[in-house]
């Protein structure tokens, strides 16, 4: 559980800093997979969570773990719950 909390905090910190603990390229590669995933859901938080760097997942969250994808793809500790990346 502590590992998951660290991954969530890491993702949010990276999101707000406009960075990524896995590198922007890998975060973008993860986002491409998420953007075509059947579990990706569009939320109403797009207006408050803009994502100019990785626009294809802006406003989306993972329907399995409920994490905003803009934070999940930027975290080194986050693991896709369906092992897609
Ligand atoms: S984190 Fe995994 S399961 Fe969730 S939307 Fe992305 S690819 Fe799909």
Question: Could you characterize what this model shows?
Answer:
With 85 residues, this protein is mainly alpha-helical. The protein has one domain (2-72). The chain is built from three helices and two strands. The chain has helices at residues 2-17, 24-35, 69-72; strands at residues 40-42, 60-62. A two-stranded antiparallel ribbon has the order 1-2. The longest helix has 16 residues, at 2-17. The chain is globular and about 25 Å long. The mean pLDDT is 90.
Which short descriptors sum up this protein?
mainly alpha, about 80 residues, about 40% helix, binds iron/sulfur cluster
Break the fold down into its secondary structure elements and pairings.
Layout: H1 2-17, H2 24-35, E1 40-42, E2 60-62, H3 69-72
Antiparallel strand pairs: 1-2
The site of iron/sulfur cluster has 12 residues, from helix 2.
Q: Structural class given helices, strands, pairing? A: mainly alpha
Shape: globular
- Secondary structure: number of strands: 2
* Rg measurement, Å: 11 Å
Strand percentage lies at 5-15%
User: What small molecules does the structure contain?
Assistant: iron/sulfur cluster
The share of residues in helices is 25-40%
SSE pattern: HHEEH
Distance between the termini: 20 Å
Overall pLDDT score: 90
Number of domains: 1
Quick one: biggest sheet? 2 strands, antiparallel
Number of helices: 3
Return residue spans where pLDDT drops below 50 for at least 5 consecutive residues. Answer: none
**Biggest sheet: strand arrangement:** 1-2
């Amino acid at each position: 559980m502590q590992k998951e909390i660290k991954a969530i905090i890491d993702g949010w910190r990276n999101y707000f800093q406009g960075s990524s603990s896995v590198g922007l390229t890998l975060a973008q590669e993860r986002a491409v997979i998420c953007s075509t995933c059947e579990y990706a859901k569009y939320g109403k938080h797009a207006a408050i969570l803009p994502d100019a760097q990785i626009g294809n997942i802006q406003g989306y969250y993972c329907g399995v773990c409920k994490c905003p994808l803009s934070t999940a793809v930027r975290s080194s500790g986050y693991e896709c719950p369906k092992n897609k990346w």
